[in-house]
Amino acid sequence: MRASEVRQKFFDFFKSKGHVIVASAPMVVKNDPSLMFTNAGMNQFKDIFLGNREPEFLKVADSQKCLRVSGKHNDLEEVGHDTYHHTMFEMLGNWSFGDYFKNEAIDWAWEFLTGELRIDKDRLYATVFEGDEKDEVDRDNEAAERWKNYLPDDHIINGNKKDNFWEMGDVGPCGPCSEIHIDLRSDDEIAQTPGSELVNKDHPEVIEIWNLVFIQYNRKADGKLTSLPQKHVDTGMGFERLCRVLQKKKSNYDTDVFQPIIQQIASLTDVKYGASDDSDIAMRVIADHIRTIAFSITDGQLPSNNKAGYVIRRILRRAVRYAYTFLEVRKPFLSGLLPALIETMGDAYPELKAQKGLIDKVIHEEEESFLKTLATGIALLDKIIDETLQKNYTVVDGKVAFELYDTFGFPLDLTELILSEKDLVVNRKEFETEMEAQKARARNAASVETGDWVVLKDDNEEEFVGYDFCETEVFITRYRKV
Ligand code: ATP
Ligand code: MG
Ligand code: MG
Ligand code: MG
């Protein structure tokens, strides 16, 4: 089943259960000091859960563009090395705002996976919250009892607070969650070790696919939980993981969500996917990062030197360096992946098509400017690595990392990534001291900071619809297709 059909089936199914299908919120979050990027489907409904906004519909479903590269959820290190964590991914979700609760959420999740999509029931596991004495919360027997209609006892697993209790923050709405995991190992392997022992243990073939959150408590400032008058359901399912399951692949990257991009990388670099571990990781990282970069730009966040903009710049430079080191790319090539990205996601997210010209231009310029200093920076770093290894040291001077940052545009985490490949680390304290000293120098110089005005026009088919203010203090002139 093609990815686009999977997404459509999800929408159709929940529509048939009375849900209204709503659009994804932008991946870039504005006007919320606690969050730079949308990291879960619930973000756009936060005010409803907090009781600050009335829901327009009581039952909705959507596919939300999420990014997990900062804050509470940061999966950056996993990306490309494992087969199922991405920086940007789609989270399919269904929601009840004070309408249905646990029973329907569980029944429909089961019906969708095993009825509609015909996933093998024997391979599914459900986790339920085991309870917590300190919070005076019992095991989630309601969820467990409902699962008993579908699963044998040894497929219903108790889970701890970390995995099975969701909280928005120190105070506010929260509640237990029940997750669906799937065991994709061979029958032989399953006969040797039951899947129940591998759930939530980072096994690459026993993975979490769907989280059903039951928002039923409110945590007060004194830490105590009270029951909410209105109970809500908030679910999130990894779209790329679901596609992998349905397409019977070993990795999310082998599905039609990623393969066109990976094949385009292969053809542009003349390196086959499968040629070596290093080049495969590089291709997966690049295929992942191009999505993040492109969607950030369409959603109003250009690469820049601060906050969310710097997160995107770091990701872009990380992709460029993987291409440089492992695929021998010496010229800008990332924007050459846009046609493949548009092929895989352009129908579901037309903003990609509408803003292709903008994305192309921004990526090309960023890449070109970083490539100018990358080779010299890498040569310097290689020399430092050799010297450090020769001395049998494991820590690299923070001043070197700062020079790489300041002169060659290497974000600290990029330097750290390159060093970690040789089991070396940076003296962060020294790096930070250098950074502080530079900031002080800048303040003393009393430089006047000005925001940049970026006026970019895509093509003639678009009309100007107004200015948009971004966190980076960059103004983007927005155009809408006519
Ligand atoms: P995991 O334990 O695998 O890291 P999670 O518990 O952090 O996942 P949730 O916050 O429960 O994830 O998000 C809901 C669903 O979103 C998960 O069940 C999973 O299918 C999907 N998901 C989470 N993180 C990622 C990611 N980085 N890339 C792709 N899909 C993800
Ligand atoms: Mg996680
Ligand atoms: Mg988890
Ligand atoms: Mg989870």
UniProtKB/TrEMBL annotation:
Family stated for the protein in its record: Belongs to the class-II aminoacyl-tRNA synthetase family.
Domain (Alanyl-transfer RNA synthetases family profile): residue spans on this chain: 1-482
Cofactor(s) required for function per UniProt: Zn(2+)
GO BP term, example: alanyl-tRNA aminoacylation
Superkingdom of origin organism: Bacteria
Catalyzed reaction equations: tRNA(Ala) + L-alanine + ATP = L-alanyl-tRNA(Ala) + AMP + diphosphate
Chain's role: Catalyzes the attachment of alanine to tRNA(Ala) in a two-step reaction: alanine is first activated by ATP to form Ala-AMP and then transferred to the acceptor end of tRNA(Ala). Also edits incorrectly charged Ser-tRNA(Ala) and Gly-tRNA(Ala) via its editing domain.
UniProt protein name: Alanine--tRNA ligase
Parent-record interval covered: 1 to 482 of 877
Any one GO CC term of the record: cytoplasm
Species whose genome carries this gene: Marinilabilia rubra
Major place of residence: cytoplasm
Entry note about domains: Consists of three domains; the N-terminal catalytic domain, the editing domain and the C-terminal C-Ala domain. The editing domain removes incorrectly charged amino acids, while the C-Ala domain, along with tRNA(Ala), serves as a bridge to cooperatively bring together the editing and aminoacylation centers thus stimulating deacylation of misacylated tRNAs.
Subcellular location: Cytoplasm
